[in-house]
What does this fold into?
Amino acid sequence: MSAASVVCFFMAVLHIKPSSSDYDSGVYWCESRNGSASNSISITVVPGGAVILQSPVLPVMEGHDVSLQCKTEDSSELPADFYKDGSLIGTEPTGHMTIHHVTKSDEGVYKCHISSRGESPPGWIYVTEKPITTPGPPSSDFTAFSTFYYVTLPVLVLVLFLLSLGLLDHWRKKSRDADPAAVCPARTPEDVSYGQIVIRPNRSRELPPEPEVIYSSLR
It folds into this structure.
């Protein structure tokens, strides 16, 4: 049975016994009885003493960090050069590199090289897109609170304000009807105006005497 056709059952655990050949190198995945398949992983078997690049075998989600470790069987802290798609991306003195906040552009084939030890087999790093989460509908409690806060409460405040104005106006009218002084308030000295009236005795005018009138009769 080839490595690419291994089917996992029960607990989906597959044990590969140590081997001195590269027969077990290949791509592995699991399939369920209903035909569903898992993500595939690549396993490379190298001879003892060779350079190994430890990288994630499962797809990495966007935004996460990825750690790469270049090592040999007898040492794990040697200076190493790291390559992506055949291009040098950096040299680390301890053979450890971290790629922060990976994106789809970080997806590709990686390998490393240790001087005087050799080069590691290539390994794929897969990056999956971060799922877009859409906010769900607001809960009924939040909707009820929003309705009360933005609609009902302002209406209640307005009604109470108008009711207070009506009661205040009614109280003022009632107070004026019960207190006559409120209708005709007492005048203060500052409100009184004074004037001087002079009364003189009446002097009759002397008219000139009328001329004497002579009457005669005509026949």
In short: The longest strand covers residues 108-114.
